[in-house]
Predict the 3D structure of the following.
Amino acid sequence: MSNTIIVGLQWGDEGKGKIVDYLTESSDIVARAQGGSNAGHTVINDGVKYVLHLVPSGILWPTKKCVIGNGVVIDPLGLLEEIAKIRSQGVTITPDNLFISEHAHLTLPYHRKLDLAREKNRGANAIGTTGRGIGPTYADKIERQGLRVTDLRNAAKLAQEIEWRAALHNMELEAAGYDRINVAEVVVEIEAAAVELRPYIVNTVVYLNEAIAAGKKVLFEGAQGSYLDIDHGTYPFVTSSNTTAGGACTGSGVSPRKIDRVVGVAKAYTTRVGAGPFITESEEMSDMLHNMGREFGATTGRARRCGWLDAVLLHYAVMINGCDHLAITNLDGLDGLATIKICTAYRLDGKVQNHPPATIPELERCEPIYEEHEGWLQDISGMTKYADLPPKAKAYLSRLSELAGAPVSLLGVGPARDQTLVV
Ligand code: IMP
C-alpha cells in the first residue's frame, strides 16, 4: 500500500500515534499536515515512553523521513524543546530526517498569551483550549498577518517582522487588561531559534511530491479528531484546523489523487477533553477508566471525559473521511465491564436522529439510544492474535464495524507496539 492518511474519528486522543507507529514500518515518510503543539502523541517503544507534539512519530524509526507540512502551526521554541527532549532519549534528529515546511505558520509567545486571555474573557463560554496558542495562530494566518517559517530565514528583517505583529497583539492584550508582551525578549528568543531551525527548512510540497513520484510511500499523521474539525466538528468547541482527511491534502500540498487509502482511528469507547457536547458521556465510564490510570491527556495532563461508543458520530466520521479501514484502539479498556453500551441513534425532540445535528443546543438536547452487549470480563491485553479474542469481544467489534460502515483492520489491546493486532 502506498500513500495513507490516518485520521481520528472522535475528539482526538484515539491512539493515532500508536497506529501511525505501526504503519510507519511500511512507509518511507511520515508527514504532519495540520494542528500544532496542541497534539500529544504517546508512543511506547521497548518500554520507553515518547511524547510527541510537533515532530511526526516516524522520527522514532532510524530509516524514516519526517515532514512538518505547510498546514501545521509551529511553535519554534516548543519545537526546539521537543527535539532536545527526544534527542536526550537517544533518537537522532537531523536535517536529513526532519523537514520543516517554509510555508507553515509560526506560533509566537504572544499567541499563547492571547489564547489564554481570550479563553479567560469568554468566561462561561470558554472552549477549554490546550493554551498552546493554536486558535490565535490560525486566526493570524487567515487574517493574512501571520509570520511563516520562511521568515525565519531572513535574519535582517526578522526583528521588524515580529515587532509590528507583536505591537498589534499588545494592543489587544492591554485593552483586555493583560500585561503586554516584552517584544525585545520575543525577538531575542525567536532570532536564536531561527538559527537552530534554518537547516531544517525546505519546500516540503516539492519534497513530498518528488518523493511520491519516485515511488516513496507517505503516511499522513492526522492530529486531533474529526469532531474537533473547524468545519465538521462540534463548533465552536473545536480546534482551528481541518482535522479530517481533506486537511491532509491542503496541509501538505499533495493532491487527493495521490492518496491511496484512509484509515480512521477510534477508541472502542469515546473520550473528549475540554468543553462541548458529549452525548454518550458517562460518569461510570469516567470513574472506571480513571481508576485504571487511563485517560489523562498527554499535552495538558487533564483527565479526559469518558463515555460509551457513539456509533452515530463514528458513522458520520467514516463518511466525511471516506475511511477504507478502521483501527480500533483501547479495546482492553472495556475488559472489566459486564455490560457494554453502544449508542446507535439519538432522540432529538421526540424524533430519532441518525446524524449529529449542527448546533450546540440541539446536540445538548439529544438523548442517546443504546443497545447493550455482554462484556467478555477477561483481560485481553496479553493477546497477540485476533483469533484468540473472546467471542464476545469479536461480536462487539463486528457490531461496531457494521454500524460505522467500514471494516476493522487493526486492533489495539494496550499501549505497546506488540499490542496491535491485525484483524
Ligand atoms: P486548541 O486546539 O488548543 O485550540 O483546543 C481546542 C479544543 O480542541 C479543546 O477542546 C482541546 O481540548 C481540543 N484539543 C486540541 N488538541 C487536542 C488533542 O490533541 N487531543 C484532544 N483534544 C484536543
Residues 155-175 form the longest helix (21 residues). The longest strand covers residues 339-348. The pocket of inosinic acid is lined by residues 11-13, 38-40, 127-130, 132, 134-135, 223-224, 228, 237, 239-240, 273-274 (CB under 6 Å).
